[in-house]
Design goal:
4 copies of one chain form a homotetramer. By secondary structure, chain A is an all-alpha fold. The first copy, chain A, has 2 domains: 48 residues, Homeodomain-like (Arc Repressor Mutant, subunit A), CATH 1.10.10; 147 residues. Chain A is 78% helix and 3% strand. Chain A contains 9 helices and 2 strands. Chain A has a two-stranded antiparallel ribbon. In chain A, helix 4 packs antiparallel against helix 5 and helix 4 crosses helix 6. The longest helix of chain A has 29 residues. The radius of gyration of chain A is 20 Å and the shape is elongated. At the A-B interface, helix 1, helix 8 and helix 9 of A face helix 1, helix 8 and helix 9 of B. Chain A binds a DNA duplex (21 and 21 nucleotides) through helix 1 and helix 3.
DNA sequence: TATGAATGAGATTTCATTCAT
DNA sequence: CATGAATGAAATCTCATTCAT
């Protein structure tokens, strides 16, 4: 019962290292299992396959993050836009939660963000951006409807979703320290909240 | 001498397709040469190896782009900061040149940006961002020196370099049409020029 | 003691299915035990190994059939050949017994006949044919001794053993219904009894 | 140009031996290539995969045999049934051609008949029997139409196709000598031609 | 200029089997 | 009675690369 989880954990640890060094595609299951003092077969006892092993590292952290994000997006959907900009508290709280979840498993998330090429998880960020875009597109269109002579600039809207997500990607990628991360991200968020509409709405000719 | 170049070209064309579909790592030289009606050996006559073949597609477009970027950065270096913000023309001209160079070989650049994982070119964007950061860091520090009680926020400065470069990456990635691309990028540049200092300088305590 | 046999039975049932679908060689013990809601280890508690598991399905039905066949062959041995052809009743009775035994465990026998490649049971039919051949060769030689100028054609004799056994193999393989099977086999047997000597004896030059 | 075919041939020769000894499923490509003094990769240069290697041994002999069989079946189709039984010459000629084709590559055919379990060629004999059945079913039905009060016994007809084909399978399997094979098969064929209708037609009640 | 042959290393995956508990 | 863990061997296959011709 001890060996049990110990070896599984050992495999995961060694896999983390190997994936981080070589990326998913070039990582060698042979090396991972050898590093763990086991055989490749052991990997296939604990995990379905290479993707499954990667998933064992990455799934839970990703899900935690996604849950927080989804909840936030759902709550945004329901908000009255007029109070949107003043709702600093909400965004701050969201940022805090998100950063916490992200830094709890920073290494796993780094794997997902930078080393997943070739795996089933390739393109995760793009999918999150897409999701973000859908959420804020709707919000923007609602708002635009109340601004005579204005409409949403689709490209700008998409780019905005892009930098919004990448603000967090950049953060976790470049700032190892969680507290500093929080300090960095707050002005960025406030800034984005403030400038969003200016960037996104264009004259409707 | 004719067959020569024809076959080389055929290989490059088929390689583009294969790299685009599968990415560098999973692309098969066998398939590339077979698609070109040749054998793997032929690839090694024309190119040093897999990386060399990728480079044959990507080097020239990358160099053109880099040259334009470097020239721009060098010229920025020499400028008096006081006139920076008014120099709209400069930035527009730069954007036009850069976009032109980028769209002249959009497919090669897309390869470089999205499909180079596993190749010697992996991380090219990061290197460009680094270069950008060095350039604008210096500029920012120079400017900060003339603003009493202010200093450069290194993280913000880096993030700024990041979105600056990624504005172009996002553009070429998401907008197939060159003219539209130019329309999209101009407000973004102006916007970044305008907000740069506000984002980058923090109180020096 | 109940669970015990229940699980053993479950394993056998799932093994039947798996062996039938994939054949002995490609059948997976993992899948069998998983389908039974158990682990591979369980198989090794109840059975010696893969062949042993196959045997647990196939041994008893095979033995029943073999016993009937052996008894019949032994009784044939003792008969006076002169009355051979008239003894329709004997052959009919034998056929009825054999068919009954075969259809009682048709699925196990199908496994043995069609899906045993790679197992210890591969070639069972050939061994039965060999046995048949020995029995009827002796009979034929005895008879030939009483026919001046005739001798046994060894090849024909062997072929006869072959179609004799394969008549039953074909039957169980192609006819799911026991009653119809009996209807089919009777004329075939009568026919073979009748033609045997004509096919088997040749001029002794 | 010499090495070329020599090594390919060596692989085929070693593959024949290995397939014959262990059957398709258990045969090891490693062993085959090692026996040939080459690496597994070499196999994949010359052949598509394991099935392809097996096919390289078996395809041509099989095709030759099939061609002769198909031609014969087509010619039977066109014949007037009334002269069927007298046309001994036709059947003899057919047997001679077929036996010749079969014994020209007896080893390959043995592989196909006895060692193909697990390969793409598994069940080839069954498919030939099916084809035979279709051909002779039609013939039998035509004939039955001209016999008042008679109809085709489907089971018997199928069994007949079965022993017809298996006569040849048994032959090549058990008789190494081509001339003896021819001697064996002729009386069997004549016998089958003669008895076919008696076996196949039943009273139509 | 390019082929055709072959290497050699390594990839992931699957399997029957074992054994302490 | 059966599990869960793990082995170890082998399997097929793929690949970039080399080189004589």
């Amino acid at each position: 019962m001890n060996d049990n989880l110990e070896n599984r954990q050992k495999l995961i640890e060694c896999a983390k290292k190997e994936f981080m060094e070589k990326g998913f595609s070039k990582a060698s299951l042979r090396k991972i299992s050898a590093d763990a003092g086991l055989t490749t077969g052991a990997i296939y006892f604990f995990f379905k396959d290479k993707n499954g092993l990667f998933g064992a590292i990455v799934d839970e952290p990703l899900n935690k993050v996604m849950q927080i994000v989804m909840e936030h997006y759902n709550s945004e959907q329901e908000e009255d836009f007029s109070i949107y900009e003043q709702a600093d508290g909400d965004h701050d709280e969201f940022a805090e939660q998100l950063i916490a979840a992200m830094y709890e498993n920073r290494d796993a998330l780094l794997l997902l963000l930078e080393k997943s090429a070739g795996s089933r998880y390739e393109g995760t960020v793009d999918r999150i951006i897409e999701l973000t875009d859908k959420t804020y597109s709707k919000l923007a269109r609602n708002y635009a409807a109340s601004c005579p002579g204005k409409k949403v600039d689709e490209y700008m809207q998409h780019w905005f979703s892009h930098i919004q997500i990448n603000a967090f990607v950049h953060l976790i990628t470049h700032e190892p320290d969680e507290k500093k991360a929080l300090k960095h991200i707050k002005p960025i968020i406030n800034y984005m909240v403030k400038e969003w509409m200016e960037l996104t709405l264009e004259d409707d000719v």
